Amino acid sequence: MVNNSNFSIENVGLSKKKSIISCFILILFLWVPLSGNSQNRLSEYIESARNNNPEIIRLQQQIKILELGKQSIRAMIQAPKGYLTSEIAITPYLNNKGQLFSTNPVPTAVGYDVGITNGGLYSALMNVDVPLFVKKTTQNALHWQDQQINALKIKLRNQHYRLQYKLTDLYYSAFGAQLAYLTQKESLDLMSRELKILEQLTRKGLYRVIDYQLFKTSISSDSIKLQNLAITFRLQLMQLKSFCGIKNTDLDTLRMDKLVLSTPNLSVSSFLLPYSNDSLTALAQDRLFNNRYQPKVLFYSNAGLNAIALPGIQRKLGLGAGIRFSYTLFDGKQKQLNKAQSLILIDQSTRLKQVKTKNISLQRAGLLKAIGEANNNLQNQKKLKKDYKNLISLYKLEIQKGQVTITGFLIALRNYNNIKLSYGLASINLNKLVNQYNYWNH
Asked: Given CB 3.0 to 4.6 Å as the disulfide criterion, which of 180, 256, 365, 416 pairs with 388?
């Protein structure tokens, strides 16, 4: 019987070594060593995501375009405009004693009056138009442009907040996958060390071969689970890096950064700014529309060639200047209609702002309650985790004396791993709740 026992143990030991070697080969394949420029802090991932987020880049570029547009508005409304014009007009006559073209047609001739061209039959002019009294018109147009820019800046700010919130959630999800892997790995390392002790005790007859075989089988099962957890962690981490635009595919070890509750924005919530800006934009749009009702005064001048006949055209060089005034008297009450539309938009923004304010308040209250409950649960699990850790220490001592069953030890160890993992996941969940609460505090 002793020889058979020894023979079985040796075979088991050989099988165990092959299993462990296979496990380590796969783990080495899955767990790439850390590179010198590894990223393992939440802040580093957030910074990378901001630099590589398409929506943030698009908003930043649109703001720059609209800022340049303000220069275009000033030039369009205020700046003098110079331009060249050239004209040649052919005005034939009928019943003019056979002369198709004449500057002195007979009274019975049929055709345009010689002065009807209002600027000449032949002209080549340099023209300059100078708008006058356009300060208010310019201010209204620039105010509209500023509201457009402000709307994009609010979107950009809120996009930063949404990105940070989403990325933090992804980060802690990946950290949870890492925690599950490391917890399982730590358990497997412990069981591997205990297996060596158990092998020696089995040879001495303190444990049966069946106990040894049960322990070894449990290690093999846990090794497979460890491999699956390593794959899951790799996928989670690669999704996180892809979201941040990080090309590095090394399996960096993430660090647990404890989030701290922030205080609500004491002025105006960033999530309410779009509604306030919508109201201001409606007013700015009304002011811009009303530019068409501003009196328009234009100084104009021209210089060059202007003639109604070819003979003596070389002497038809000159210059002229004038002032043009225009003012809209009525246009079907469009001004009143546009104002009514603006008031509807303002009322809509006000009502939506009230709904959003209530939603933010409910979100904060609900999350604060959930955070309090999560904190209490975490403290209870912390105490239970400590008790199980002491129990495992006692089991390790008793195993060396051969005074406990392997089944009892395995159950206690699995319970300890479960509570340890549960505690870690509860900590992660608490951070996720704090992340949500901080998001709504902006």
From this structure: 416
